[in-house]
Amino acid sequence: MRGSDGNVREAYQKLESWLSDMPVDELERRHAAAELAFRRLGITFAVYGEEDADEKIIPFDVIPRIVTNDEFAGIEEGVVQRIEALNQFLTDIYGPREILKAGIIPPELVLANPQFQPVMTRIKPPGGIYSHISGIDMVRTKDGFFVLEDNLRTPSGVAYMLENREAMLRLFPSLFQDHRVRPVETYIDHLQDMMREVAPSGIRGEPLGVVLTPGAFNSAYYEHSFLADRLGIELVEGTDLFAEDRFIYMRTTEGPQRVDVIYRRIDDDFLDPLAFRPDSILGVAGLMDAYEAGNVTVVNAPGTGVADDKAIYSYVPEIVRFYSGKDATLDNVETWRCREPDALKYTLDNLHELVVKRVDASGGYGMLIGPQATKAELEEFRARLRDDPEGYIAQPTLSLSTCPTVSGKNVCERHVDLRAFAVSSPEETRVVPGGLTRVALKEGSLVVNSSQGGGTKDSWVLA
User: Fold this and answer.
1) InterPro entries under this entry (predicted)?
2) Which residues of the chain have pLDDT under 70?
3) Which of 131, 211, 226, 332 is deepest in the core (most CB within 10 A)?
4) Which residue range forms the structural domain that includes residue 76?
């Protein structure tokens, strides 16, 4: 909210004045009202592996994070460039593999990657779009915005972005009267348009889409049901669908109905027991055969996970340059690939100053924050790095930007990041003017993931 000189930034001046006039008890009351509304709506998530694995409310902070329209224009340009390059990369590695032949990326990082799906070498998604729905995580430092990671498989959080906005509109209508805030509700329109555009050709009338969920015990089940409801389509589990003659059908009380587009929220391994894990009871036997025949479209395409592996992430600036001939508008956070001997040595020598992550992990798991780690944790990670250097990358501990955040009866600074959401079709890639701001609610913490105790804020892009 304030610049390095201590003065309130122009974009925040009206909010700062509003905060100064707002009684602390009233702010606390509205904060509690937001939490109660989220609880009644069932906006929850579950954390796997915890003894107390009951569903929890994602903490919501009522003070918005503000970005100017000019700042967001730079974010939008960089996100579009990045996603288009990654879709070209996926088309390439499941086709001619020119980027591997050119020596830009070591072939083993792609071909031996657990997310690489050989079956996709026979399937060409409509328009060359593999990642239809993407979430790009960014952090802001004194030098601007940097990409922390790409989420291209089944990115989550968009329901919280939309619900956060609705909560703010109910709780603080006067704030919206003082600010011209760009809408985030257009996301659903973009999603509907994309599902129409990628549907198989030759369909008479409106294509039939569904949201495929692993079921009510999934940590993001609330979002699955929310999106199906907003899209006006059915929420289905694998047992609700079946394959016949290389088509996919949905069981209904009026008989089978052909399904044209499946927005899947199931990992690749569980999508089709005939193509992937034979013990899966979550997917649809014969789905990949129907997909290969061009009779159904899967959103996002199987095999997309290769492009959001953290080892591949470190090559994204080179990927952008290879396919577009231009430098990346949004740069990566500086990254050391521990698979390289010099990078491993640097990481081991400076472990107490670095953030170390597993290349195949997400949600804040499998991560070490050197400056906050104990001696025992540092030694444990040294052993992990020596045993499996290819499984890790390292990054500097960044001085993330902070935003004012409610903490009891106080307003304190807390570190934040930003997940920008984009929808890609053969026509264009559209970025929602806002996104999900995640906030580390513990004082001094740099971990914003909800699974690690983080919360969320509404993100305002001023028109």
Assistant:
1) ATP-dep_Glu-Cys_Ligase-2, CP_ATPgrasp_2, UCP005522
2) 44-56, 361-365, 450-453
3) 131
4) 10-200+296-333+398-461
